[in-house]
Amino acid sequence: MFAPASIGWSFDAWLDGRWGAAGDPWCLRLMQIQVSTIYFRTVYWKLQGQFWRNGTAAWYPVNCDSLIRFKLPSAFMSPFFIRTATWGTLIIESSLGSIIWIEECRPWVLGAGIFLHLQLELVMNLQLFGWTMIACLMLFI
Predict the structure, then answer these.
(1) Is the dihedral of CA 66, 69, 73, 77 positive or negative?
(2) How far apart (Å, rounded) are the C-alpha atoms in residues 109 and 104?
(3) Chain-wide mean pLDDT for the chain?
(4) Weakly modelled stretches of the chain, pLDDT under 70
(5) What is the 3-state secondary structure (H, E, C) of 121-136?
(6) What integer pLDDT is reported at residue 6 of this predicted model?
(7) Which ranges in the chain belong to alpha helices (H)?
(8) From CA 115, how far away is CA 99, in angstroms rounded?
């Protein structure tokens, strides 16, 4: 609410001829910290559940009729793919909370995060969740 949204790369700045002007970075930095906190807390709470620790958590939402857009092929329901999806989600989300702050790793972590949310959007009906999180990740560009 207090961020100087009309500074920098906004449409307003382009109209006023101030395109790319530097502003105070604190609002942006606080929003980035908030996004990192979201991912850290998500991983923390997921690790409190036994299904995330034993690698079976990804099986439950893809078998809930109210969440899925379409049924996955049976090849993707094997224990290998379920464990890979479960632990891969934890790895990507923990990277989005931590490694995203390392500038050299940021493009790879952002790519993995966007890929994760696009996969979730493709398979599951989570309303605007995926698109909101992808928009939040754009704060790191």
Answers:
(1) negative
(2) 10
(3) 90
(4) 1-2, 5-6, 9, 21-22
(5) HHHECCCCHHHHHHHH
(6) 67
(7) 11-16, 26-46, 50-54, 79-97, 106-123, 129-137
(8) 16
The structure's pTM equals: 0.84
124 forms beta bridges with: 68
Are 6 and 13 within 8 A, CB to CB?
yes
SS (H, E, C) 87-103: HHHHHHHHHHHCHHHCC
Distance CA 117, CA 110 (A): 11
> Are the beta carbons of 43 and 90 closer than 8 angstroms?
yes
Say how far apart CA 104 and CA 108 lie, in whole Å: 8
Residue with tokens 């604190």: 26
What is the pLDDT at residue 53? 94
Q: Which residues of 114-135 are buried (b: 16+ CB within 10 A; e: fewer)?
A: eebbeebbebbebeeebeebbe
